[in-house]
Amino acid sequence: MKKLVVKKIGLVVLATLVISVAAGFMVFAGKSITIKGSDTMLILGQRWAEIYMNQNPGAVIQVTGGGSGVGIAALINGSTDICEASRQMKNSEIDKLKERFNTTGVEIPVARDGLSLYLNEENKVSELTLDQLKGIYTGQVTSWKEVGGDDAKILLYGRENSSGTYVYFKDNVLKGADFSAQTQTLPGTGAIVNAISKDKYGIGYGGAAYAKGVKYCKVKKDAQTPGYEPTLENIKSGNYPISRYLFWYLRNKPTGETKKLVDWVLSEQGQQIVSKVGYFPVK
User: Which CATH superfamily is 116-241 part of?
Assistant: First the structure.
């Protein structure tokens, strides 16, 4: 008789344990959010996630990079909840999303960025026009002497073509022209900054938050206008000529924990983190 009671009690305990684990998994699953995409936004996304999880015990947010194109592809194939992108989705990408999920997605501007040009701190050049930048990155201008610097070859650094920053730079600076074959493509903005910090005659581009150990190149709209650095004042006034929004993309209107996260990111506290990381508030 005692053995029978023990078996019954064991079954009850086991059943209770299974129910508790299942319930715990449901809570975890309900709060788990995946974010993937832009390497430009990776530091910002990770900082948001870290602080949000500290303030909301039980919430689980996983943030990974790979580039805006990779994040958008993940949104389309259903393997991420939120895509971080430093460019807008293309019509072809929206069409694919609609074909699979019957939705055109939701675009949420979450921050602003001044697309920055980085120079080595020892480079004599301090400002360039948009036309000069186009000439440099298309291979028409190959020596710093042609733009007021030393008689030395310009060494080009850029992002891979899955990067939203690559697409934005090509569309808005190169006006659709191809990058010079001499451009060394690196997997992230941090790698570009690291290379230029060691290379006196290098030039690269990326998000404003990454300029550590290098200097900003002031950008001029044309030869007659002054050059500006990517500061909040210059971006708000429109003086800095290559500023952009940074986006979150979702398949559908956010609900539940995702809506709570989005609302927090757009709140005063969330936007303060944008400034601390080195980007600029969305408003």
Answer: Periplasmic binding protein-like II (3.40.190.10)
pLDDT (tens digit per residue) in 209-238: 888 899 999 999 999 999 999 999 999 899
- Of 77, 60, 72, residue with least CA distance to 36: 72
Helix (H) or strand (E) run with residue 32 in it: strand 32-37
Q: Could you tell me which of 203, 167, 156, 212 has the C-alpha nearest to residue 70?
A: 167
| Contact indicator for 115, 207 with CB cutoff of 8 Å | yes
Tell me how far apart the alpha carbons of residues 207 and 39 are, in angstroms, rounded to a whole number. 9
First to last CA, the chain: 73
Task: Return the CATH fold of 2-113+246-277.
Answer: D-Maltodextrin-Binding Protein; domain 2 (3.40.190)
Q: What φ, ψ does residue 202 adopt, rounded to 5°?
A: -90, 160
pTM above 0.90, yes or no: no
